[in-house]
Amino acid sequence: MKTISTENSHGGTQGVYVNRSDVCDCDMTFAVFLPPQAKGRKLPVLWYLSGLTCTHANVMEKGEYRRLAAELGIIIVCPDTSPRGDAVPDEPDNWQFGKGAGFYVDATEPPFAQNYRMYSYIVDELPKLIEAEFPVDMTRQGIFGHSMGGHGAITIALKNPERFGSCSAFAPISHPSVSGWSKPAFQKYLGSDEKNWRAYDACSLIEDGHRFPEFLVDQGTADSFLEDGLRPEELRQACETAGISLRLRMQEGYGHSYFFISTFMEDHLRWHARRLGE
Amino acid sequence: MKTISTENSHGGTQGVYVNRSDVCDCDMTFAVFLPPQAKGRKLPVLWYLSGLTCTHANVMEKGEYRRLAAELGIIIVCPDTSPRGDAVPDEPDNWQFGKGAGFYVDATEPPFAQNYRMYSYIVDELPKLIEAEFPVDMTRQGIFGHSMGGHGAITIALKNPERFGSCSAFAPISHPSVSGWSKPAFQKYLGSDEKNWRAYDACSLIEDGHRFPEFLVDQGTADSFLEDGLRPEELRQACETAGISLRLRMQEGYGHSYFFISTFMEDHLRWHARRLGE
Description:
Two copies of one chain form a homodimer. By secondary structure, the first copy, chain A, is an alpha/beta fold. The first copy, chain A, has a single domain, classed as Alpha/Beta hydrolase fold, catalytic domain (Rossmann fold, 3-Layer(aba) Sandwich), CATH 3.40.50. The first copy, chain A, contains nine helices and nine strands. Chain A has helices at about 55-60, 65-70, 120-135, 150-160, 185-190, 200-205, 225-230, 230-240, 260-275, and strands at about 1-10, 10-20, 25-35, 45-50, 75-80, 135-145, 165-170, 215-220, 245-250. A nine-stranded mixed sheet of chain A has the order 1-2-3-5-4-6-7-8-9, with helices on both faces. The two termini of chain A are about 30 Å apart. The interface of A and B includes residues 8, 10, 254 and 266 of A. Chains A, B: Its EC number is 3.1.2.12. Chains A, B: This is S-formylglutathione hydrolase. Chains A, B: Keywords: Hydrolase, Plasmid, Serine esterase. Chains A, B: It holds the Pfam family Esterase.
């Protein structure tokens, strides 16, 4: 692991790091915020998964998480959203597929299967690195994210409920198998047999018996992706049918941007802190 | 004035606007945050001047001012740092001069005098527009900024002490007539007679008798521009000699970036709110 930069912020340290990912077969960059409490002891770790077009940097710059993470003593890890580099296949004119749009799946279809293995990167490879390099208490992990990253957080929590003590999302893609911006991506990453998509779709995972105790979801009512792309009502129905506790808050007049995320970041961090133990 | 965008954030509205500036002879973009209290009454207004290379957007995205401005009921105006557009003379490879580097002076030298009139834009033209378009109480104005914008805030406060009830700065350029990155710019904007630079130099203005009751200045000790570019000790000496109250806080290990600004934003907003009346 190589350190790109570290900066004091809110009493802690915001770092950016790069490592060679065997899983994604490329260099991967990620951000880690260490609150001041990290000098003395192991702390809970919260994984933030970003949305389409983002890198590790967007939420690091615009998410406004450091003040409260420093108060609560939580380490925040912000990975990238896809493999990167000249050797990685891409559709440069398509912001909903390829670089910046890994959808947190392990692709099975050539030529994407070689690099687009974001599920294994987030669930297996990066946690090992974070555990080896930072003072994290891996018995206290939470996961959250925005849009495509909210989809990633919810699906990863549903598939790994023993690992995560908390999960929340800002405007998550709730039913990617049917949304206009995720269906073509799933087809290219996972093939045309839609049965294979169910392992990466929150609504399908719940239908298929996966469970997580509770979710917090914030969704802006002025979000232009609400109806087709995000579909929070379908997540609500799936959770209701399955008896999963979903706190879905429709936030009047809010959009899809970091102005929305940063507004409700404090509520989410407190939600996670209460469940991970402060 | 044309609205570029408005977004709900922290209970208020973050807007971006553009207007034709007669003073700068070009279109000028600026950001205004209206806290929720603005729906019912006129509120204090705080002017934030940004540093080299920035537009209105940098502090809007990374400054973390909205949460507290919404709590305190303060309107925040973030102007651009220079004239813009194809017709504006520039040195594209020089980040310390031209576009993004207006230094809040009224240039006197051709070809820059036609557009680079940021002092008059900030002090005369933009306030008239803001007063006409937003619910601001112009009897309660404060001003602050970062680096080149801290220089702008302090010099504008010193020259207009009757207008501003409060002034603070993050890592201001304190003595631009002698700093490596501002001296060449002053020469090109204001000519080679250094007497004419004194009207835009905080230390010189104080030496020449200008006064402001008190300043809050935060400065990171790990700021790579500390010694040559910023020179807070020279501001301290000038203030001491003149009997101006300067609260200069050296912040251990902090750099020059928005990670530093956002950390101490809350302290600055509370400083202004106490002086402007909450």
